[in-house]
Write a structure and sequence with these properties.
The protein is α/β, with parallel strands linked by helices. It is built from 10 helices and 14 strands. Helices cover 37% and strands 21% of the residues. It has a 5-stranded mixed β-sheet with strand order 4-3-5-14-6, with helices on one face. A 5-stranded mixed β-sheet has the order 11-8-12-7-13. It has a two-stranded antiparallel sheet with strand order 1-2.
Length: 314
C-alpha cells in the first residue's frame, strides 16, 4: 500500500495539535486542506482516525496505534532528509524545543538570543512546560530537563554544570519570623510552594545530610506554577520559597533574598538537552548542540561532562 508521506505528516499534526485549525497553522496550509488530507488517509486505510466534534478531534483506537507507530519513524525520515538537503548549506528550518520552566540558564535569554544571531535561517520555537511527556510523539526535536527525570533511552547532553536547590526569603521575613535551623522547622513557617499544574500536589522540598536524603511537606500558604510569582512573593516578605539557586542568584547577590539551611542542600546533576538516540541528528539540532557546547566551554573550565557525550543521571 503506497501512502503519501505528506498525508502522514498531516495526520501527526492533527493528532498533536488537537484540532484541524492548529494543524493547519503548524503546517502553513488551510483548514480545508488538512480536512481533505485526513479524509484521503482514512479512505486509503478504510478506518476512521479521529472522532470529530465542533471544538476538537480525538484519536480513535486505530488512530492511537497508527500515531504510536508512525510518529517516531516520520521524525527520523524528516531528520534524515534535512541532513541530506542541508549537507552543503547553512542549517535552516523550524527547530522545536520544550523546556522546563526552571531551566534558568537555557531560558534566561542570552543563550537563545546568541543562537538566533548565529543561525538566522533557523526558526526556534520554544515551549515552556513542566509536564513530562514523549517529545517524539509531541513533535519536538529536543527537550531541556533535569538529568534525573530524563528517560534512559535518550541522548542527554549537559546544558549547565551541577545545580543546587536553595530555600530563600527576604531579610525582613527572617527578622520578623526567625531563622529555621532544621528543615523540619519549615512546617512552622509561611512558605511559597510550586506545582507544575493544578492537578498535582505541591512539590515536596528535598534535603540531604550525611548521605541521608529526605523531604519535607511544607504545606505552602501560597502555591503557584509560576516561578516569577514565587520570587516576587519572597522579595515582598511573603515567606520562604524553594528552587534552583540560579533562579535566585541575582537577588542573593544584592542581598534582597537570603538563603537558609545551605548545609542540607548539596549539589546535583544539572540540566541537559535530550533527544532520541534512534534519530539522526539534523543540522539545525546539531547547530544548537554545538552552540550550547561552545557557551559551556566559555563559562566553565573543561570537565568530564563538558563535551558532547551521552550522560544519563538517574
Amino acid at each position: 500500500m503506497a501512502i503519501d508521506l505528506n498525508l502522514l505528516r498531516v495526520f501527526v499534526a492533527v493528532a498533536e495539535g488537537g484540532t484541524f485549525r492548529a494543524a493547519a497553522d503548524r503546517l502553513g496550509v488551510t483548514r480545508s486542506a488538512v480536512s481533505q488530507g485526513i479524509q484521503r488517509l482514512e479512505d486509503i486505510l478504510s478506518q476512521p482516525l479521529f472522532q470529530r466534534s465542533t471544538r476538537s478531534v480525538r484519536l480513535t483506537e486505530f488512530g492511537e496505534k497508527l500515531l504510536e507507530g508512525v510518529a517516531p519513524h516520520l521524525a527520523e525520515i524528516t531528520a534524515t532528509l534535512e541532513t541530506a538537503m542541508d549537507a552543503v548549506g547553512a542549517p535552516k528550518g523550524l527547530l522545536r524545543i520544550t523546556a522546563t520552566s526552571i531551566a534558568e540558564r537555557f531560558l534566561s535569554g542570552p543563550l537563545i538570543a546568541s543562537f538566533a544571531e548565529a543561525y538566522p535561517n533557523i526558526t526556534l520555537d520554544v515551549t515552556v512546560s513542566d509536564d513530562e511527556f514523549d517529545i517524539v510523539a509531541a513533535g519536538y526535536d529536543a527537550g531541556v530537563r533535569l538529568g534525573e527525570v530524563i528517560e534512559k533511552d535518550m541522548v542527554a547532553i549537559p546544558v549547565t554544570g551541577q545545580q543546587r536547590q536553595v530555600a530563600v526569603a527576604s531579610p525582613k521575613y527572617f527578622e520578623k519570623y526567625g531563622w529555621p535551623q532544621h528543615p523540619k522547622e519549615l512546617t512552622n513557617h509561611r512558605c511559597v510552594g510550586w506545582r507544575p499544574h493544578p492537578q498535582s500536589a505541591p512539590y515536596r522540598w528535598e534535603f540531604e545530610r550525611d548521605g541521608q536524603a529526605f523531604d519535607v511537606a511544607v504545606q505552602p500558604q501560597v502555591t503557584t506554577n509560576d516561578m516569577l510569582l514565587m520570587v516576587r512573593t519572597a522579595l515582598a516578605g511573603g515567606g520562604i520559597t524553594f528552587g534552583i539557586e540560579e533562579t535566585f542568584q541575582p537577588y542573593l547577590e544584592r542581598g534582597e533574598l537570603v538563603s537558609v539551611l545551605d548545609d542540607w542542600l548539596p549539589p546535583f546533576a544539572g540540566f541537559f538537552i535530550y533527544f532520541p538516540s534512534r534519530r539522526t541528528v539534523s543540522p539545525k539540532l546539531r547547530a544548537l548542540l554545538d552552540h550550547i557546547r561552545d557557551l559551556r566551554i566559555k563559562e566553565w573550565p573543561p570537565q568530564t561532562d563538558g563535551d558532547l557525550s551521552c550522560l544519563h543521571r538517574r
